[in-house]
Amino acid sequence: MEEFFIFTGITLVVFMVFVAPIWLILHYRSKKQVSQGLSDTEIRSMQNLAEKAEQMAERIETLESILDAETPNWRSRA
């Protein structure tokens, strides 16, 4: 029984000295990054992706209108 308490004590000390501080540092660092929001680079990337998505949507609409004119029943084939 005494060996169990020694093992538990050593495990608890190792956890409190090594694991807990690293865990807390990483936890609060990630909280800080989340609260800061997006960086300027990330905002620019998001805007760029949004513009590309709008261009793709316009192209798809154009292609669909061409297909509607040339092959009226193309939607029912799929």
Automatic annotation (TrEMBL):
This is Envelope stress response membrane protein PspB. It comes from Glaciecola petra. The keyword Transmembrane helix applies. NCBIfam families: phageshock_pspB, PRK09458.1. The chain crosses the membrane at residues 6-26. Keywords: Membrane, Transmembrane, Transmembrane helix. The gene is pspB. InterPro entries: Phageshock_PspB.
